[in-house]
Structure prediction request, 257 residues.
Amino acid sequence: MDNKEQPATIDTGALTGLQLDLRSYTTDTESHSHDYHQLVLPVAGNLDIQIGNTGGLVDNCKGAIIAAGAVHEFAAQGSNRFLVADIPYSLARQLEQLPAFIELDDSLSHYVQFLHSQMTGQQTQQPSSQQQMLLLLVQLLNERFTDTDSNPDARVTAVKRYIDNHYAEAITARQLASTANLSPRQLGQIFKARTGMTPQQYLLEKRMQTAWLLLSNSQEPVQIIADKVGYRNLAAFSDRFRKHFGHSPRYFRQHSE
Prediction:
């Protein structure tokens, strides 16, 4: 999908090609494809998209996932605006397994609104925090719409399951390696080859994603949320959350409402 206006752009720097734009479209219809995945998420108005043999509408409760290589065309009527994320294929191969059109639940809609507010706000975002916000978006989509890896590695699956069930606890690299019957070094290599991150990075992502969901969907005190994601020290949790997303937990909650 080509941009029809000068975009407000988040360029994530370190991960070349990972980019988020605000775009508007005209009634012109164009057919093309690209070598990266693309997410089209609603801000205002509607957009008709044909992705391969599947047609649909992006509106206030539905988004589109255009897999790398998929031929697509689009057209819009009236005033419109959309968040469009370009995701390198190598960063999120699993997106090609997701449906072309997805229903946005309250949490996803909430997160899209937050991304929009950050792009249109006055405060300049750091590339690292922008990167994490986009990666969280990809992970949220993957968790909701992909059941399993098409070719899973049982060792990686076991470690992910262990982290998913114990992320609120102190977890060492040796514990995770023992779960897979590997050395920490072997696990790190295999896990990163399969997921694009180390086990400890996966643990951090799990904690931060869960914290974001709790901040967005509950009124629990930040201290309680910190404890639920494995941080007994509120200051340490707030510092990690700020480094991950670029804002404090309280800021995130206030601006996600």
Observations:
- The longest helix spans residues 127-145.
- The mean pLDDT is 83.
- The radius of gyration is 19 Å.
- The longest strand covers residues 36-44.
